């Protein structure tokens, strides 16, 4: 069984908490606990330099018709008393990281792509929490607190749907394997929007008169595949209560260096601060001689709120000058005066030991090319996700049906770095045969 | 299909206007200038899901070359565009 943990409006809560703790909340909001602030009409403001639209809104603001993604002008016209809270990606990341850490402390291996939403497999935890699922859910509630929605079901998507229907302080919603299809059938297709790759599908389905997941599962799979392609098939799988396996997060190795800045620091002073931070990060013992692959530059603003920018290096490096050069252009993107600047290591690379070969031969040149290719693939994946580096693989090049000739497959980065073995399909059968 | 693999060149629905002989005369709002080639593909006739398509390689009025086909199977006989 998969357990889903939902904390509605987590980014807003985290920003409110940081705002009230810093004492930058105006008037009567200052010093109030973040939960009680939610009873006021408040919403996340637009990110600095981003689209002028509000983010998550409190229930009081929603009562006025304010919704996430609404243009600022419209939101303020609907609710003139609306207070905007500057988004704080640093606080959200830190706060959600703590929630995931607590889940790991009860033995869970959580997967979480978004702050406020986490999943983990419960089957392996029953033994240490009383031998049943209820014990695991109770341990989760104890670890995280009361204000979370908990749902459990055989798949990630069904667990999410169950958690949506659970109440924050109420009992967790458990959907058994036998009941999962009946549970999902009456739900509106809009719930599929939880998957980013299906964000646009519900609108089309509704236009075609398919309003519930049950109506979707009544359609024949070939017809859905023909009309909607891969997204349609994925939606069908989800509606049947099936989903892809969870991919738990890798516990991070937090290496952060922060520097408080005197007011109105800019230009050369900021660059010096950056150089100092890079030197401090490189000196951290947690690095253990490894190079740095991906870094995050963040800042807290004098007026409240925070800003983050990520820099993935073309080649993992432990050279301070190279790291400084990669991060310095980001300083120019700072949208407001900063009161503190921080550099965080997001991903480490291999140990830093670039050494030229004494003798170059064909084999070593090929190995070097493969290593560089593998390095490039890892860099692309660090920047754009695991599914970013693909290669076209010919499976049936002479097929008369064009879509059977070539498939996109994950690029084997490790293989290209070590041996460069080619993967060939077994026999000459087309992939259609296994459909 | 194996998880992690994705086909290249999957057909996409297309709005194709056809003449009385079933030969395309427009793709979307663009007029067909010439039909370069025409062929029929029949495959998997030994299975429950046989495949039967009438392909046309077209030159459009805006200079584009496109390949479209009409699905002649038991369904709605819709038009698709496909990259060869």
Count of extended strands of chain B: 8
Main β-sheet, spatial strand arrangement of chain B: 2-8-7-6-5-4-3
Note the overall shape of chain B: globular
Number of separate strands of chain A: 13
Instruction: Report the principal-axis shape of chain A.
Output: globular
Poorly predicted segments of chain B: none
The arrangement of helices and strands of chain A along the chain is: EHHEHHEHEEHEHEHHHHEHEEHEHEEH
End-to-end CA span of chain B: 20 Å
Helix content of chain B: under 10%
**Ends distance of chain A:** 27 Å
Largest beta-sheet characterization of chain B: 7 strands, antiparallel
Strand order of the largest sheet of chain A: 4-5-1-6-7
Global Rg of chain B = 14 Å
Derived structural class of chain B: mainly beta
Oligomer: heterodimer
Give the integer mean of the pLDDT values of chain A. 81
Largest sheet of chain A: 5 strands, mixed
Task: Please provide a written account of the structure.
The complex is a heterodimer of chains A (435) and B (84). Helices cover 37% and strands 19% of the residues of chain A. With 435 residues, chain A is of the alpha+beta class. A five-stranded mixed β-sheet of chain A has the order 4-5-1-6-7, with helices on one face. Chain A has a four-stranded antiparallel β-sheet with strand order 8-11-9-10, with helices on both faces. A two-stranded parallel sheet of chain A has the order 2-3. In chain A, a hairpin with a 4-residue loop joins strand 9 (290-301) and strand 10. The two termini of chain A are 27 Å apart. Residues 25-32 and 416-435 of chain A have low confidence and may be disordered. Chain B has 84 residues and is mainly β. In chain B, 0% of the residues lie in helices and 55% in strands. Chain B contains no helices and eight strands. Chain B has a seven-stranded antiparallel β-sheet with strand order 2-8-7-6-5-4-3, with no helix packed on it. Chain B starts with 5 loop residues before the first strand and ends with a strand. The A-B interface holds A 222-223, 226-227, 229-230, 244, 390, 392-393, 400-410, 431-432, 434-435 and B 1-13, 41, 43-44, 49, 51, 53, 67, 75, 82-84. Strand 13 (406-410) of chain A pairs antiparallel with strand 1 of chain B, so a sheet runs across the interface.
